[in-house]
Design a protein that fits this description.
By secondary structure, the protein is an alpha/beta fold. The protein contains six helices and eleven strands. It has one domain: Rossmann fold (3-Layer(aba) Sandwich), CATH 3.40.50.150. The chain has a seven-stranded mixed beta sheet, sandwiched between helices. Strands 1-2-3-4 form a four-stranded antiparallel beta sheet, with helices on one face. Strand 5, helix 2 and strand 6 form a beta-alpha-beta unit. The relative contact order is 0.14. The model has no long low-confidence stretch (mean pLDDT 91).
């Protein structure tokens, strides 16, 4: 359907089969969009589980770290009716593809912050932004050197009663991430998405405001 390249992501492809459109970057499927409008197959995937299992308030303010094609945005509008979805995405080419090919151009209450999470996340804390639901899907299967500081940096952005969800690799860093976040939340759960897969969700709820959060560079 469409192909481009970017300095950040390399080869970016939009591929259609009979039932769904896929965003493929570096050989990995980052997002899907059902062409027939049937989202039921997505219920087996981590995008759905992240929203469906989290204790969300009505009309949440949402922060997504990593956009892909915006599958999570569509599911949030189905399941939670957010009052605002803020997205951090470093690659403008990904944003352009999501708007053009994955239906995000028709979504309102959507805010894009284009830049590296290392810069944007601390800025959001400094200006006092808080979110009821935070989903981090930007450093899956990366080394803890980058993944753990990002996880900790997101903690202050959780509103009272808010939820932080991180998509992690079950064998590489899921357990380590969950352990690192337990001092900051009253409830931290690790959920395997599918028995045959490697996606694991670290779901954190009940922020401990008195706990000091380490800086990005620590």
């Amino acid at each position: 359907m469409f192909e481009t390249r970017s300095p950040w992501s390399g080869r970016i492809r939009v591929v259609d089969d009979r039932r769904e459109r896929r965003l493929i970057v570096g050989g990995d499927t980052l997002s899907v969009l059902p062409l027939d409008g049937d989202w039921s197959p997505v219920r087996r995937e981590y995008w759905w589980r992240a929203v469906a299992t989290a204790p969300l308030p009505r009309r949440p303010a949402v922060l997504l770290v990593g956009l892909g094609g915006g599958t999570q945005v569509h599911l949030l509008h189905q399941l939670a009716r957010p009052r605002l979805v803020t997205v951090i995405e470093r690659d403008g080419a990904i944003v352009d593809v999501a708007l053009r090919w994955f239906g995000l151009d028709g979504r309102d209450r959507l805010e894009f912050l284009c830049g590296a999470a290392e810069i944007v996340v601390p800025w959001l804390e400094r200006v006092g932004r808080r979110f009821d639901f935070i989903m981090e899907d930007a450093v899956y299967a990366e080394t803890p050197v980058r993944a753990l500081p990002l996880a900790r940096a997101l903690v202050p952005l959780a509103a009272p009663g808010g939820v932080l969800v991180l998509n992690r690799h079950r064998q590489l860093d899921a357990h380590r991430t969950a352990a690192a976040l337990r001092p900051y939340f009253t409830d931290v759960q690790l959920q395997l998405v599918r028995r045959e897969g490697n996606n694991a969700l670290v779901i954190c709820h009940g922020s401990r405001r008195q706990s000091a959060v380490e800086s990005w560079s620590s």
